[in-house]
Amino acid sequence: MPSIIFLGTPEFGRTVLEGLIDSNYDIKAVVTQPDKKIGRKQVLHQSPVKELALANHLKVYQPAKLSGSEELAELLQIQPDFIVTAAYGQFLPSKFLQSAKIAPVNVHGSLLPKYRGGAPIQYSLLNGDKETGISIMEMVKKMDAGDIFAQASLSIKDDDTSGSLFEKLSVLGRDLLLETLPKFLDGTVTRTKQDEAGVVFSPNISKEQEQIKTSMTAQQAHNLVRGLNPDPGAYILVDGKRMKVWQTKVSDEKTDLAPGSLVTNKKRFAIAFADGTVLDLLEVQPTGKKRMPIRDYVNGQGSKFKSGEKIIDD
């Protein structure tokens, strides 16, 4: 089987790597991000890709920065048939990409040229898209700008979050990659140049983007909650304190209340947003608390607010 250097970090990458392993590709090396300290206790965690690689006795490299590293010097000596990346999280040096005998290939979570960049799945939800997909593309020096070898689309459901889309797209990406790689070998692979006029970027989510603002409509706030679930999570400021919002529903009703006002806390917790729209909070996490269904919040802290009162700060 053809030889591969694989680069990836999260569950998305793990699913793709698992497909390559199960298909008996010759995985010469696996490159993933360094172990990270997570949580209040700062426990050191391995990436999902590293865990799978070690379980399959594959050689793992974890440079903090691949460019100029000792690890890169070793990897350049391998000269695999393919270099395959799936949510790795670093730019790759041109000389490394050029060391692939056949092609450097990326499994990208969007229908390019829409959503080049590090957060394509999140932006498809933030923007309320009805469709996303996978692009199998050639890696070049310019970010996500290489020729497209294959694409497959996926409908976005109303209850999808970035977590559910990551899971669905990882499977779609795995299957599309395994369908595409043999085409390089039998000469049937095709190339399609990206239309630069259609380029849309999806930069990594900033801290400022995590806050739900009252200038948003209920639909925009709902999309933000979906797009940032499960990581990093969207939040509102209630009485000056952050409250994470994990699940919401756009109400059919309209209100004359000012954006940020409590519409009702009777059996539900509904807040007014821009253009008279109303958003029901369904699952929240007050500061210092665990995630909870809204009924638990209403029976506790939420009961102190009065209908018509402005409770969200910007």
TrEMBL record:
Q: Where does (6S)-5,6,7,8-tetrahydrofolate bind?
A: S110, L111, L112, P113
Per UniProt, residues of the Formyl transferase C-terminal domain are 204-301
SUPFAM superfamilies according to UniProt: FMT C-terminal domain-like, Formyltransferase
Annotated GO CC locations: cytosol
> Where are its TM segments located?
none
> Cross-referenced InterPro entries, in alphabetical order?
Fmt, Formyl_trans_C, Formyl_transf_N, Formyl_transf_N_sf, Formyl_transferase-like_C_sf, Met-tRNA-FMT_C, Met-tRNA-FMT_N
Q: Name one GO molecular function term.
A: methionyl-tRNA formyltransferase activity
Q: Where is the Formyl transferase N-terminal domain?
A: 4-180
Q: What is its EC number?
A: 2.1.2.9
> Which keywords, in A-to-Z order, does the entry hold?
Protein biosynthesis, Transferase
Q: Which NCBIfam families match?
A: fmt
Family of the protein in this entry: Belongs to the Fmt family.
Which PANTHER family does this chain map to? METHIONYL-TRNA FORMYLTRANSFERASE, METHIONYL-TRNA FORMYLTRANSFERASE, MITOCHONDRIAL
User: What does this protein's UniProt record list under function?
Assistant: Attaches a formyl group to the free amino group of methionyl-tRNA(fMet). The formyl group appears to play a dual role in the initiator identity of N-formylmethionyl-tRNA by promoting its recognition by IF2 and preventing the misappropriation of this tRNA by the elongation apparatus.
| Protein name according to UniProt | Methionyl-tRNA formyltransferase
- Originating species: Lactobacillus rodentium
The gene coding this protein: fmt
